[in-house]
Amino acid sequence: MAVRLETTTGLEAYLEQSASVLKSPSMARLGVTLDLAVHQVARALSQGLPLLVCGNGGSAADAMHITGELVGRFLHERPGLRCYCLTSNSCVLTAWSNDYAFETVFARQVEAYGEPGGVLLGLSTSGQSPNIIAAFKKAMEIGMSTIAFTGEQGEHLADRVDFLLNVPSTSTPIIQQAHICLYHYLCAQLEAHFLS
Predict the structure, then answer these.
(1) Mean pLDDT for the stretch of residues 78-93
(2) In the β-sheet with 51-55, what is the strand arrangement from edge to edge?
(3) What is the bridge-based pairing of β-strands 51-55 and 145-150?
(4) Is the overall model pTM greater than 0.85, yes or no?
(5) Superfamily of domain covering 28-195
(6) pLDDT at site 1
(7) With 0-12 CB in 10 A as exposed, 13-18 as middle and 19+ as buried, what is 168?
(8) Which of 105, 149, 178, 182 sits between 20 and 30 A of 99, alpha carbons compared?
């Protein structure tokens, strides 16, 4: 059951709405898929293959956050991991979007940086972002694995990505909050893998 954000309520109600999503059975069921995705990313990184991450707006910030944790460190000292944020090069973003199309700005970078056996992680709260969908298509053409972090409405991506993590909500901020929990778990599990 999707939780909609009620903006006229106080902080306590807002926190309860957020918690109801995080504690929902639908959210708990994502654990199996997330663990499989972590295993796939760990395998790629262990082989020196890249993890590419992209998103728009707040999800672009999340993409940078994820890569910052993995290239730098999350909780422990360990080697840097080969992880690239496709939203952080303003020259590529603006040149390609101006000369060609914003819808293909991530697909072009997947073409440039992707490798067979690597992984693309795309964040789209709606699951409808044309540039994220185009990036998934390009990644699959190359032979990369694909992970989608979406909201409830991203269900249609189930047959277009390898791992779908669709948070059971239609509220963008609540979906983003849940994405933070999911990708912090991903970062912690990857770090544990590279410490062992």
Answers:
(1) 96
(2) 83-85, 51-55, 119-124, 145-150, 163-166
(3) unpaired
(4) yes
(5) Glucose-6-phosphate isomerase like protein; domain 1 (3.40.50.10490)
(6) 45
(7) buried
(8) 149
At residue 171, does pLDDT exceed 70? Answer: yes
Q: Each residue of 154-169: pLDDT tens digit?
A: 999 999 999 999 999 9
Q: Which amino acid is at 170?
A: T
What is the spatial distance between Cα 191 and Cα 22, in angstroms, rounded to a whole number? 23
Q: How far apart are CA 162 and CA 172, in angstroms?
A: 23
Judge contact between 84 and 51, C-beta under 8 A.
yes
The structural domains of the chain, with segments of one domain joined by +, span 28-195
Residues sharing a CB contact under 8 Å with residue 81, sequence separation 6 or more, in sequence order = 45, 51, 70, 71, 190, 194
Distance, CA of 87 to CA of 182 (rounded, Å): 20
CA–CA distance, 164 with 34 (Å, rounded to integer)? 8
- Cβ 105 vs Cβ 97: under 8 Å: yes
What is the arithmetic mean of pLDDT over 3-31?
86
Per the CB < 8 A criterion, the answer to whether 27 and 167 are in contact is yes
